[in-house]
C-alpha cells in the first residue's frame, strides 16, 4: 500500500469508530503487516494534516480518536442546548482528592476535607464512571480503596495519571477545574445548571464550583464525551 492509502484507511477508521482505537487496533486494519512505529508515524502525519481544521487527532488513555477542538464547542453547543447537571464543590473536591491521592478510603478523604463525605457523593462519582473500588485496606472494617477509571482520564483528555498537574492542597476542587478548562475533554458535566444534591451539605449552591465548559463533541457521532463506564486504564498499545 502507498503512504496515501495507509493514511486514508487510518483516517476513515478513526472517524468512524465509536471509541478510541489503540495502536494494536489500527495495526489489525492491515493484518499486522505494518509495525507499531510505522502506525505512530502515520498518526503524527494525520495530526499535521488536520492541524488547521475543526477536528483534531489526539491520544488519550485508551488510544487515539478525533474530537472537536475546544474553540468549536460554543458552536456545537447550539445543536444541543440542554444543560447537564452541575456538580457541587463537595463532589469536585472529593473527585480531585481521589484523583491526586489514590488509592484512598472514604475516611482518608474525610481527613483531608475536614467534613463527612456522604455515601451519595461516592455513588455520584461511581455512577458517572469516574471512580471505582481498587481493593480494600487491611484495617478494621476493610474500607474500600478508591481510584479513578480510564473514563476519567478520557474525559480529561489525558493518557496517564502522571499528566495531572500539581495539586493545590488549599483548593483541590479548583485544581480540577483548571485542568478541565485546559484539557481537550474535562469532567464536563459540571456546568451551568441545577446543582446535583450530593447529601454533603457543603457548597452545593456556589455557582463558581463548576469544573469546566460544555463537552466537546466526538468527531464521528458529535455525541457527549461522557460515555458508559470503561474499565481501568490500559496503555494505548494494548
Automatic annotation (TrEMBL):
Biased composition (Low complexity): 203-227
Signal sequence range: none
Keywords: Cell cycle, Cell division, Chromosome partition, Cytoplasm
Region of interest: Disordered: 187-238
InterPro entries in alphabetical order: ScpB_csome_segregation, WH-like_DNA-bd_sf, WH_DNA-bd_sf
Record bears the keyword Cell division: yes
Skewed-composition ranges (Pro residues): 228-238
Protein source organism: Castellaniella defragrans (strain DSM 12143 / CCUG 39792 / 65Phen)
Protein name: Segregation and condensation protein B
Biological processes, Gene Ontology terms: cell division; chromosome separation
Transmembrane regions listed in the UniProt entry: none
Amino acid at each position: 500500500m502507498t503512504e496515501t492509502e495507509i493514511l486514508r484507511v487510518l483516517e476513515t477508521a478513526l472517524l468512524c469508530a465509536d471509541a478510541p482505537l489503540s495502536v494494536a487496533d489500527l495495526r489489525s486494519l492491515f493484518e499486522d503487516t505494518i509495525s507499531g512505529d510505522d502506525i505512530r508515524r502515520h498518526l503524527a502525519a494525520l495530526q499535521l494534516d488536520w492541524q488547521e481544521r475543526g477536528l483534531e487527532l489526539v491520544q488519550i488513555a485508551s488510544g487515539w480518536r478525533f474530537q472537536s477542538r475546544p474553540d468549536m464547542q460554543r458552536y456545537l453547543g447550539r445543536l444541543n442546548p440542554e444543560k447537564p447537571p452541575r456538580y457541587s464543590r463537595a463532589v469536585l473536591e472529593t473527585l480531585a482528592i481521589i484523583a491526586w491521592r489514590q488509592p484512598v478510603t472514604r475516611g482518608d478523604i474525610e481527613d483531608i476535607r475536614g467534613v463527612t463525605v456522604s455515601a451519595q457523593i461516592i455513588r455520584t462519582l461511581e455512577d458517572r464512571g469516574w471512580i471505582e473500588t481498587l481493593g480494600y485496606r487491611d484495617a478494621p472494617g476493610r474500607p474500600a480503596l478508591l481510584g479513578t477509571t480510564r473514563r476519567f482520564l478520557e474525559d480529561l483528555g489525558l493518557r496517564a495519571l502522571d499528566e495531572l498537574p500539581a495539586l493545590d492542597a488549599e483548593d483541590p476542587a479548583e485544581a480540577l477545574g483548571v485542568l478541565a478548562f485546559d484539557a481537550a475533554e474535562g469532567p464536563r458535566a459540571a456546568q451551568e445548571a441545577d446543582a446535583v444534591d450530593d447529601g454533603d451539605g457543603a457548597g452545593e449552591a456556589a455557582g463558581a464550583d463548576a469544573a469546566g465548559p460544555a463537552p466537546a463533541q466526538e468527531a464521528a457521532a458529535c455525541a457527549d464525551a461522557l460515555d458508559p463506564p470503561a474499565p481501568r486504564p490500559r496503555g494505548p498499545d494494548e
